Amino acid sequence: MEDSLRKRYLIKLFSNIVNGIINIFIVAIVPSALGPVAYGQFTYIQQFFAQLISFFDAGTSTAFFTKLAKNTDRVELIKFYFLYAFLLFVFLSVTIFALDNFNYLSYLFPNISQKYVYFGILFAFLVWFTTIFIYISDSFVLTISVESIKIFHKIISLGLLLFFIYYFSLDLTYYFYYHYVSLILFIFIISYLFRSKEIFSKRMLSAHLNIFKLSKEFISYSSPLFTFNTLSIVFGLFDLWLLQTISGSVQTGFYGLAYAIAAMCFLFTSAMTPLITREFAKSYESNDMENIKKLFLKYIPMLYAIAAYFSVFISFQSEALIQIFTDEKFKDAYLVLVIMAYYPIHQTYGQLSGSVFYVTEQTKIIRNIGLFSILLGFVLSFILIYVFNLGAIGLGWKMVLVQIISVNIQLYFNSKFLNIKMTPFVLHQIYSVLFFVFMILLSDMFVISFNSTILEFLFSGFLYTLFVIVGVLVVPSIFGFTREEIYNLKKYFYRRR
Asked: Which of 47, 34, 31 is nearest to 243 (CA)?
């Protein structure tokens, strides 16, 4: 028996909340411990290799997930994709080694020690490889087991980080070591679970591997994305290189910190993304387009509003958050966070709306939208970072603007495909954000001044949430609810009393 979507979402949500709380501790500890320069170097290395691996992934991991979710009996997919992952790691390592020997590495990684570049290869690969394990668990509906493991693993990882800080003087080298131990431990634990559930079994090892046929299947799925991924990696790396070269490691560090804090807005919505993707895949496999349409109409506005609720609060409280998490060296990063806080709002749209294209194998549309977004992003990056020298603020504006535009183009094609109206979605994007802005401005009028920044921040959050709850009872469409659903919810809680 499969666990219900609601039950799987709740455990993923709880896991993400724990993960978010622990990430708050990490953000409060690591940037100050490393300093803006070292943290900026880590951000650059992390995002550089994330972009590079994303290029070689080329949508194959999404293909792997959707194909396995449709038919979990195809265990040869796991064997095949693990082989691909191994070859990818070897290729990346050899390439970086060759660039180092021909003295080209310093051009790609300005003002960064070569040893950290090698550390970055393994780190980025392990991060990507763990997502493959999560895809497998969601495909086999092991969400509850794996998310429970993730919770305990994250707690252990925090203890490990504190150990490194207490017994060592935390620098970039030890920070990479910490990640290695944490990620490898997670992979071993999940592997043991898969072995006990007979996913990793003799059946998988002995499964016939028709490499040519499987390669052709994955290439057919991902080939429309090749041009997009090639340009995406080139211009994605160009953004980072331009910021690092023109503005320096400190600005890269500001961007990395703002990105890490803004990503916390994505906690509640990212929990649903793989689950909805799986439901899309299963519905599409059984030709149940009505269910896909129903899920799209229900969850897109709801999760968008949840992301907007957090994003608006973080944007308005950016200065307080920087004071709470870091020290004086990062005080100017709050302006970057004011902008970057809005990035997760449409990132939610991008994840869920984009999954429809992947599940239905409309990868040509993703490619075309992506190519337009890349060109627009390049122009904005050049103007904002190079011409106006806005540094991390410029990169933040570029990311938010491109995300909004590209997501709404996706929405246009999805509306046509699912035969739904686009206008209500666009209007909802606007009035829901304005609703949360109004609520936080209203709550700020009643905030009591404390001597503690943390207490003032928490009290502001409490008032803001209170006003939002009252406001949603009046305007339930903010979260995609109807008045009837709100009435039934009230009746439910009344009976529970």
From this structure: 47
